[in-house]
């Protein structure tokens, strides 16, 4: 598996510093500790980032999960999303939601999901991504919190996969092209 990786893009030490920085930004922006914040993990890639982040946030948090994918047509997104696991909460109108993502690419998923959760009645909706590939945008979208902007490379590790492999790697690496062009 190590031979599949061209180089490390974000090391374990850099990940730790980045998560610490984002947690401090979240604590700064949600100062009222009497009100809970709902961290919404978008499965599957975000589970590792979510687990690290929730341990470092000092504001009281609840957690929940959704599974969302963008409808594809070959390699092109149609700009629609498919929700296979929804957020069901009778108290959504009292929820300050913070959507946690591992990576933003076209922006389609978070753009639609943010609108969807606002329409569902969430009190507030913000977004947090560990990685962002701004050069890949198909829709205008800017996250509220971002770990790092990265170039358009095939990245794996820290929750990110290729064919469901590599998610458990503790760092973010760039996959060798021969691995995914075989
Ligand atoms: C990734 C990522 C986002 C989405 C971003 O999920 O976790 O949900 O793609 O892409 P977009 O900005 O182009 O919409 P993926 O579909 O790979 O699912 P996974 O997390 O289960 O691997």
Oligomer: single chain
Shape: globular
State the helix count.
Answer: 4
Give the terminus-to-terminus CA distance: 15 Å
- Strand proportion, as a percent range, falls in 35-45%
Total DSSP E strands = 9
Structural class computed from helices and strand pairing: alpha/beta
Structural commentary:
- With 182 residues, this protein is of the alpha/beta class.
- The chain has 4 helices and 9 strands.
- The chain has helices at residues 12-29, 47-56, 108-119, 177-180, and strands spanning 5-10, 37-43, 61-73, 76-85, 96-104, 124-132, 145-149, 155-156, 172-175.
- It has a 6-stranded mixed β-sheet with strand order 4-3-2-5-6-7. A 3-stranded antiparallel β-sheet has the order 1-9-8.
- Helix 3 (108-119) links the parallel strand 5 (96-104) and strand 6.
- Helix 1 packs across helix 2 (47-56).
- The two termini are 15 Å apart.
- The model has no long low-confidence stretch (mean pLDDT 93).
- 1-O-pyrophosphono-5-O-phosphono-alpha-D-ribofuranose binds next to strand 2, strand 3, strand 5 and helix 3.
Quick structural gist:
The protein is of the alpha/beta class and 182 residues long. The chain has helices at residues 12-29, 47-56, 108-119, 177-180, and strands spanning 5-10, 37-43, 61-73, 76-85, 96-104, 124-132, 145-149, 155-156, 172-175.
């Amino acid at each position: 598996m190590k031979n599949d990786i061209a180089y490390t893009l974000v090391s374990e030490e850099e990940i730790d510093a980045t998560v610490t920085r984002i947690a401090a930004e979240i604590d700064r922006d949600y100062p009222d500790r009497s009100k809970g914040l709902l961290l919404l993990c978008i499965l599957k890639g975000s589970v590792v980032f979510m687990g690290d982040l929730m341990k470092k946030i000092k504001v009281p948090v609840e957690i929940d999960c959704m599974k969302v994918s963008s409808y594809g047509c070959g390699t092109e997104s149609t700009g629609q999303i498919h929700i296979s696991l929804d957020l069901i909460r009778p108290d959504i109108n009292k929820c300050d939601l913070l959507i946690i993502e591992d990576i933003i690419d076209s922006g389609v998923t978070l753009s639609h999901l943010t609108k969807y959760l606002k329409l569902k009645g969430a009190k507030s909706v913000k977004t947090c991504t560990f990685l962002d590939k701004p050069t890949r945008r198909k829709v205008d979208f800017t996250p509220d919190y971002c770990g790092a902007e990265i170039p358009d490379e095939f990245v794996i590790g820290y929750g990110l996969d290729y064919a469901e492999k590599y998610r458990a790697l503790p760092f973010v690496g760039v996959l060798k092209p021969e691995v995914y062009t075989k």
